[in-house]
Q: What sequence folds into this?
């Protein structure tokens, strides 16, 4: 039914254009799902039979490389593990180096064979990038939505973990594009989950929220501060290898022990171990609402009580609680500062998980909305805002690490500081350090340390075509534009000539959440030594400039300066050059002072001489 509204200007009835459908997609490690808005409410899309909303993030390739996605692919995990791909999200934006320790855990082959060093997945004799594989999942979701809703779906909002870096966000965006979707926004998963509970929709409210997300293979805790519709990620923590799969594994190990089986025999028999794994998952789900599980696989007796299960998983849950404490510490918050706790992910259905989170935070968590759907529903709400149905809302995230460029001496000059709200644009003017310099290398880094070598390089480019000028004359403006998805565009322009160049930063490979946390920790640990190195480097750069200008001064004023003045100046320049080679910043500063003190009166004399020379013969009225 079309909405009717009145055009007050003309006093006429006008037919309102129905807003375009933009879907929200939760592209998960284990499961994905798609949601949409109808009559102002978000819904998770069910399959054609009105059943399942979850689409397992699993792809099976047959011998002709034809792909099957979702539930029908899942059964091949047992039958055809080499050609059945799962957990692709773990590989997004990663190099082989980043994931080689995961290889044993995956049933399929990952390889590193291209220069960009991004991993690929091998299926038969073909190679797929994680972007292509994610695109397959997204395309399946898109076609499912089109079938069920009976209209073309071409625009989407996709969610990613709050700690995803720009390479991982860009990969997700590229996967969407490849699937034929115009990705309007990449949104943080905890932001989407909060939106579903209505948090952030009221401009007046201010809240601090903890989003506890325990999925199949990953655990994330995010602390958000929300004010005036702005979502700020205060901290994130978690474990990229902890989730419901580990609960399944614990049950499996328990059965292996109870049935006196050899671990190595079970591990070698891929098909048996997958059957046991699936049975263990069934048991776990059953125990969320029952006290006992009992089944049989061949001669193997698979039974477990709820109490036994809980004692198996308590240490795993304790790990998640420790991560919550670390996240609070990083956000510099006491537990009482948390206004709300939101549960996300299928594994939060386990009663012991819920009870443990409640005990840890001292308040009942929000769990009324299906924890599997809560992120996708939030993505649909965000999509609706973008479609123009809720113009007052502005959703903003912050950048977790500072970004800047390398300046002389290997120092980083921060242009966008950590925790800046994105989207953000910032710029600064630079100049050349050598006469006649026609090129300038712009190297971009991310991190909190003072020296570039201790930070993470995002990329570099060369601004060419600067007209030759004396050092210090060119005006080079460097702009950083960080968009709402965390993708950085760097633009450099020489203002006198207008030459300009820009690139988008797509880092070659990603960093993990742990590495990011480590970078922040390192910056704190090394703050004092970094400051000392910065002071030393700055003294060195200043000294080099003084050495250069003193040499010029000596060369240009041979006639005005006495022999003794020249040799003393040269001696002091040599002394300064020598001090620069050392590590003592005080010595460099002392040598600079001595040289300055000695040459200052000489410089005045040279100036006076130049003025009187210029005035000679000129008439003064
Ligand atoms: P997600 O990655 O959020 O889709 O979560 C999937 C995980 O939730 C898997 O490990 C599932 O086995 C687990 N899960 C789903 N339903 C339940 C349930 N009723 N009880 C316990 N775990 C569940």
A:
């Amino acid at each position: 039914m079309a909405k009717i509204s009145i055009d007050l200007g003309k006093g006429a009835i006008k037919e309102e254009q129905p807003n375009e459908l933009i879907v929200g997609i939760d592209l998960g490690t284990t499961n994905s799902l798609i949601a949409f808005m109808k009559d102002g409410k978000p819904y998770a899309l069910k399959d054609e039979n009105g059943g399942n909303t979850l689409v397992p993030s699993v792809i099976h390739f047959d011998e002709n490389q034809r792909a099957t996605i979702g539930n029908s692919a899942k059964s091949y995990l047992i039958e055809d593990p080499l050609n059945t791909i799962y957990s692709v999200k773990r590989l997004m934006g990663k190099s082989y180096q980043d994931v080689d320790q995961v290889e044993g855990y995956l049933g399929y082959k990952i390889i590193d064979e291209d220069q960009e060093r991004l991993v690929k997945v091998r299926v038969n004799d073909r190679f797929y990038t994680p972007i292509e594989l994610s695109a397959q999942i997204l395309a399946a979701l898109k076609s499912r939505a089109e079938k069920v809703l009976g209209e073309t779906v071409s625009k989407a909002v996709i969610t990613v973990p709050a700690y995803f870096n720009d390479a991982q966000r860009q990969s997700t965006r590229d996967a969407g594009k490849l699937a034929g979707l115009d990705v309007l926004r990449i949104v943080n998963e905890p932001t989407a989950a909060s939106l579903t509970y209505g948090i952030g929709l009221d401009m007046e409210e201010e809240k601090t929220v903890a989003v506890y997300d325990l999925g199949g293979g990953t655990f994330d805790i995010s602390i958000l501060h929300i004010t005036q519709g702005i979502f700020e990620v205060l901290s994130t923590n978690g474990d990229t290898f902890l989730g419901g799969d580990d609960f399944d594994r614990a049950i499996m190990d328990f059965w292996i022990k109870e049935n006196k089986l050899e671990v190595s025999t079970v591990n070698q028999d891929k098909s048996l171990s997958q059957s046991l794994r699936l049975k263990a998952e069934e048991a776990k789900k059953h125990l969320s609402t029952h006290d006992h599980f009992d089944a049989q696989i061949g001669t193997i007796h698979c039974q477990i009580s709820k109490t036994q299960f809980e004692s198996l998983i308590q240490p795993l849950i304790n790990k998640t609680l420790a991560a919550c404490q670390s996240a609070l510490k990083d956000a510099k918050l006491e537990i009482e500062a948390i206004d709300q706790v939101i549960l996300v992910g299928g594994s939060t259905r386990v009663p012991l998980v819920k009870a443990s989170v409640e005990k840890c935070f001292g308040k009942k968590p929000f769990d009324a909305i299906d924890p599997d759907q809560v992120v996708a529903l939030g993505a649909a709400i965000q999509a609706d805002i973008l479609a123009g149905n809720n113009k007052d809302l502005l959703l903003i995230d912050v950048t977790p690490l500072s970004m800047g460029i390398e300046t002389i001496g290997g120092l980083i000059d921060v242009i966008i500081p950590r925790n800046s709200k994105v989207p953000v644009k910032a710029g600064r003017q630079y100049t050349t350090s050598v006469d006649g310099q026609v090129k300038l290398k712009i190297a971009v880094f991310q991190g909190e340390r003072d020296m570039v070598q201790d930070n993470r390089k995002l990329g570099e480019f060369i601004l060419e075509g600067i007209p030759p000028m004396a050092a210090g004359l060119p005006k080079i403006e460097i702009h950083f534009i960080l968009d709402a998805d965390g993708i950085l565009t760097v633009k450099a322009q020489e203002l006198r000539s207008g030459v300009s160049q820009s690139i988008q930063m797509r880092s070659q490979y990603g960093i993990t959440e742990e590495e990011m946390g480590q970078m922040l920790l390192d910056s704190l640990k090394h703050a004092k030594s970094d400051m000392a190195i910065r002071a030393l480097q700055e003294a060195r750069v200043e000294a080099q400039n003084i050495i250069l200008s003193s040499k010029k001064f000596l060369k240009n004023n041979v006639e005005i300066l006495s022999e003794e003045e020249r040799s003393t100046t040269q001696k002091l320049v040599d002394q300064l050059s020598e001090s620069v080679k050392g590590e003592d910043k005080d010595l460099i500063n002392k040598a600079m002072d001595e040289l300055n003190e000695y040459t200052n009166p000489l410089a005045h004399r040279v100036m006076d001489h130049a003025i009187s020379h210029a005035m000679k013969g000129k008439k003064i009225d």
